[in-house]
Amino acid sequence: MEGSSTNRDAKNYELLAYYYDSLLSDRESFGLWLAYIEEKPFRTVLDLGAGSAIMAAILANKGYDVVASDISRQMKEAATKNFKGEYLVLDMTDYHLDRKFDLIICLVDSINYLQEDELDSFFICAKEHLNQNGRLLFDMHHPCRLEEFADEYLEEGHIDDIDYLWSIESDPYDRLINTHFTFYTPNGMVLENHTQHVFDCEMIQNKMEEAGFAVRIIDDFVEEEKILVIGEKR
Q1: Following DSSP, what letter does each residue of 119-182 receive, concatenated?
Q2: Is the pLDDT of residue 46 over 60?
């Protein structure tokens, strides 16, 4: 791996944003989400944690009125190659928009970046921004992922114009999945560390019901990988 001896710690998605689609995007999987997204009629969509906005672009191209959003300004910038619509920079646990939506989505394990004590705010904000009988749809890590990454996963390679090292390891005791990226840039190594929390389904359901949702959980959405959760505003 090439690169100078200079190291820099980056914030989440500060550099990864520009390599996200090449490293992490699985476009074929978006059809799995779409089947559930379109099972009930809707027109307006808020995409939380939209990242590179592939799903936002898919929905916009199908004629839906879509607003994408993410907490990362770098992700917003990187998403311009996929999505040409409105893209907001916001915190999914604390936002106040002057409109409501038929559907709010939060895909690709984005909710797993939240702490457990942030979930109440996430659900309350979502409910406040949904029309009556509107739906919140999100996916999250299956608990089996903690076992899957009990032994560290390592990958190294070259993507676009840089070399990289990618590792994933779990912390079963604290129910965490820790992902580390090292990018070997011409100006030195850039490190990005991502921590995600693996949530208990019963806890999620209880919090959502307390917030005012009727809840449906599909725990085999992607077997031993992803759980899909659908909440309908009561």
Answers
A1: HHHHHHHHHHTEEEEEEEEEEEE-THHHHHTSSPEEEEEEETTEEEEEEEEEETTTTEEEEEEE
A2: yes
Tokens of 70: 């993410």
Tokens of residue 74, six digits? 């770098």
CA 10, 12, 17, 18: dihedral to nearest 10 degrees? 10
- Token digits for 32? 């799995």
Q: In terms of pTM, does the model score above 0.90? A: yes
Q: Of the candidates 165, 172, 207, which has an alpha carbon nearest to the alpha carbon of residue 190? A: 165
Nearest to 234 by CA among 150, 135, 165, 155: 135
d(CA 11, CA 72): 9
For 130, the token pair is 């949904």
CA distance 114 to 117: 8
